[in-house]
Design a protein that fits this description.
50% of the residues lie in helices and 0% in strands. It is mainly alpha-helical and 264 residues long.
């Protein structure tokens, strides 16, 4: 089997963005049925390694975009980031952490007192309950220190696996799982690294094929890729270094076969 077959590309080299932008709409996307090529395996180690290599070239040293100076601040910022953007959260948290500098300060609040401070992040009532509830539990159960154990983190109000993995990976440098946010969910499906739609099943699939020492960085890289290029609507495929090994069904431009089921 050729290397191209293993990687899932038998197309010519990816053109420059200027060449791509000059292509006609019909040229930009080949609506070709699911690949019939024998031997193509989207989870082949060679293909996964190539994806990781290209991500390293694009995003060599990225980390969490949420501004924080402690594990507790990262817990708060990650809770607030649900159904919001990191940019928006980063506008809110500096003043929030100035006003309430410790987990104990948050624990002394009622959710209603916190609501005006986090209103702009959306779903502010639920988020206020989660943040205050998490602070109270950390103070009461964990001596005011954010635990570095996933089972303990998951007992905190508002903390599910995504938030727990963000805190463990980014702050404690513990690769316990793979962060599956909206970007990782979308791009892992487009790249055919999973066919699942449930975040926990996606995480398990990624944990099986991504080396453990890459779990933390991989999540950060995919998140940055999702913000800048592989966006939800009209991804910037012509500018993407992964384009010729990506067969996503919702590509806006392609030099390779389109797999109709490989989409967000």
């Amino acid at each position: 089997m050729s290397k191209d077959a293993r990687l899932g590309t038998d197309a010519p080299a990816r053109p420059s963005p200027s060449e791509a932008s000059a292509a006609t709409p019909k040229e930009r996307k080949k609506t070709i049925p699911q690949s019939k090529r024998k031997g193509y395996n989207p989870l082949a180690p060679e293909r996964v390694a190539e994806i990781l290599k290209r991500l390293d070239q694009l995003y060599p040293a990225v980390t969490c975009a949420l501004t924080h100076a402690s594990a507790w601040e990262l817990v708060v910022a990650t809770i607030l980031s649900a159904q919001s953007t990191d940019v928006n959260v980063n506008k809110v948290t500096p003043e929030l952490f100035r006003k309430y500098p410790t987990v104990q300060a948050f624990a002394a609040l009622t959710p209603e007192q916190l609501e005006p401070d986090v209103r702009s992040t959306g779903f502010f009532r639920n988020k206020s309950r989660s943040v205050v509830g998490a602070a109270k539990r950390i103070v009461a159960e964990f001596g005011g220190q954010v635990p570095d154990d996933i089972e303990k983190l998951l007992t905190l109000p508002g903390v599910a696996r995504k938030t727990a993995n963000v805190v463990l990976g980014t702050w404690f440098k513990k690769a316990v799982g793979v962060v599956v946010d909206t970007h990782v969910h979308r791009i892992s499906r487009r790249l055919e690294l999973t066919a699942n739609d449930d975040p926990q099943k996606i995480e398990r699939d990624l944990m099986r094929i991504i080396p453990r020492d890459r779990w933390i960085l991989f999540s950060h890289q995919i998140i940055w890729h999702g913000r800048g290029l592989c966006i939800a609507r009209k991804p910037k495929c012509a500018d993407c270094a992964l384009e010729n090994i990506c067969h996503a069904g919702d590509k806006t431009w392609s030099t390779v076969e389109i797999h109709k089921n490989a989409k967000a």
